[in-house]
Write a structure and sequence with these properties.
About 60% of the residues lie in helices and about 10% in strands. The protein has five helices and three strands. The protein starts with a helix and ends in an 8-residue tail after the last helix.
Length: about 160
Amino acid sequence: MVGIYNLYQNKTQEKEPDFVCSPITKNVAKQTEKLITFFGYDAKTMQHPKELSFKLLVENNYVARVIEGCNSISVIILFLAFIIAFSGKIMTTILFGVIGSVLIYGINIVRIAILSIGLLKFPKQETLLHNLVFPAIIYGFIILLWLIWVKKYAYSVNKNE
């Protein structure tokens, strides 16, 4: 999975003549912009001219950048690898993988939007918000999904299935 994603990035990202992020990263930035706007704030995104990222402006303040690591694909791959490693019935594994991936993607959009608004309101708390609180949201959610998977759907050495 990681190899396929790396190939995708190599084919869709550009550094010359101008920087262009992958479509997934662009979609995450644009969907975050729409969610922040839904919350009642003026939000704009734009391709960063000097790096592979999208600048995220809230109320005309450059509060964050959306990079490849923010698009949730790497954590979705991690999530899928876990449920495949502790597989269950094939159809259940596929459905849980798809539904879990969509939920992780959605939670990630919400996480970036709230983080961006938080950085606008509390710029001095950037380290706390970015490095502790908001990673805990996405990883905590993934751990919750894994626990549900292991408890309800994964085959176990102790089960006679």
